From TrEMBL:
Annotated site (Important for dimerization): 211
Keyword ATP-binding attached: no
Organism (species): Homo sapiens (Human)
Protein name, UniProt field: Septin
Gene: CDCrel-1
Family to which this protein belongs: Belongs to the TRAFAC class TrmE-Era-EngA-EngB-Septin-like GTPase superfamily. Septin GTPase family.
Length: 417
């Protein structure tokens, strides 16, 4: 191009060199930002990989960064896989409620799960309850909360403890528990093991009357008959009938009698050392509160400008979910929020395994006895010969006699010669 002062002569020149472009900042995978999950670890590895030169620093043919390969394998997602599978499959839980009539069993179940399972229930009179025998009634309902499905089965025992003579009135209940164990054992030993329906009783809420001075003989007999078959959680029913001092004394008396008669109720598992302090404090409060003093209510009342579930009395309002009034919240937390899975594990690993080992031992001993028994060999009677057989036998005998006579004559001739 022409330049000033060159006399109109133009000349070609090389364009000025461009300034080098600054390297682009690599986009980093930030993870969730907490720094405590596998995604954050992988994000850190990707960031270090990009800052160290990216793929330019890798040999040709490499596909996976070395840092990521070392720090993040992928098995940390196993809990998420189990969680997705469990939520998709759903959960089941079988709860048994036992105790004499009038202690609020149905009301407490309704308050625990906010579900009315006794819509078509028929209330019996006092005379009908005396003549009534112990029955086993099952109520099943499907509950869903935040995408989690629960198949809840409530096993009710109407007629328990209502008769004049309550000797072994718990026998139908123990038979029912054994029947569920037997059915599960058969299904487990069968061919279709994938679709086994678990109807075993995972927990039994036993209601103790607040009007006595401890455990009655029927209470002791029931718990001793079932404490090796099911997880028993004793409850003090209708705790609003007692003042706080009376509740404390009754709890101490029940604990002493449980230890005295050797009854094994459900024991809360020990906390791990790595648990937080809030969970440890909650576990200590649960252990100190047993047996739980509970109150149930199906009505909502207004107290201090708020609508709460409770009971209205002339002297005040008893709130079901107020921990200063009863142990309903502690029971709900234990039964549903913290120890439901442990109740199922104890049922499967302890109570059912004891039943299964007993069944296998009986089957083995029976097979051993059968193999040791010596069965005598039966002596078959000789068949009676018919006419043709007898004729054939006579002909053979006659032929044999002639041959013997012929041999005798030949022997005599040889001696004469």
């Amino acid at each position: 191009r022409p330049f000033p002062g060159d006399g109109g002569r133009g000349r070609l020149c090389r364009p000025p060199p461009r300034a080098p472009r600054a390297p682009a900042t690599p986009r980093l995978w930030l993870g969730c930002g907490s720094g405590a999950c596998p995604d954050c670890d992988a994000a850190t590895a990707w960031g270090q990989f990009a800052q160290s030169g990216g793929w330019l620093g890798r040999p040709r043919g490499s596909t996976i960064p070395r840092d990521i390969d070392k720090q993040y394998v992928g098995f940390a997602t196993l809990p998420n896989q189990v969680h997705r599978k469990s939520v998709k499959k759903g959960f089941d839980f079988t709860l048994m409620v036992a105790g004499e009539s009038g202690l609020g069993k149905s009301t407490l179940v309704h308050s625990l799960f906010l579900t009315d399972l006794y819509k078509d229930r028929k209330l019996l009179s006092a005379e009908e309850r005396i003549s009534q025998t112990v029955e086993i009634l099952k109520h099943t309902v499907d509950i869903e909360e935040k995408g989690v499905k629960l198949k809840l089965t409530i096993v009710d025992t109407p007629g328990f403890g209502d008769a004049v003579n309550n000797t072994e009135c718990w026998k139908p209940i123990t038979d029912y528990v054994d029947q569920q164990f037997e059915q599960y054992f058969r299904d487990e030993s069968g061919l279709n093991r994938k679709n086994i329906q678990d109807n075993r009783v995972h927990c039994c809420l036993y209601f103790i009357s607040p009007f006595g001075h401890g455990l009655r003989p029927v209470d002791v007999g029931f718990m001793k008959a079932l404490h090796e078959k099911v997880n028993i959680v004793p409850l003090i029913a209708k705790a609003d009938c007692l003042v706080p001092s009376e509740i404390r004394k009754l709890k101490e008396r029940i604990r002493e009698e449980i230890d005295k008669f050797g009854i094994h109720v459900y024991q809360f598992p020990e906390c791990d050392s790595d648990e937080d302090e809030d969970f440890k404090q909650q576990d200590r409060e649960l252990k100190e509160s047993a047996p739980f003093a509970v109150i149930g209510s199906n009505t909502v009342v207004e107290a201090k400008g708020q609508r709460v579930r409770g009971r209205l009395y002339p002297w005040g309002i008893v709130e079901v979910e107020n921990q200063a009034h009863c142990d309903f919240v502690k029971l709900r937390n234990m039964l549903i929020r913290t120890h439901m899975h442990d109740l199922k594990d104890v049922t499967c690993d302890v109570h059912y395994e004891n039943y299964r080992a007993h069944c296998i031992q009986q089957m083995t001993s029976k097979l051993t006895q059968d193999s040791r028994m010596e069965s005598p060999i039966p002596i078959l009677p000789l068949p009676t010969p018919d006419a043709e057989t007898e004729k054939l036998i006579r002909m053979k005998d006659e032929e044999l006699r002639r041959m013997q006579e012929m041999l005798q004559r030949m022997k005599q001739q040889m001696q004469d010669q």
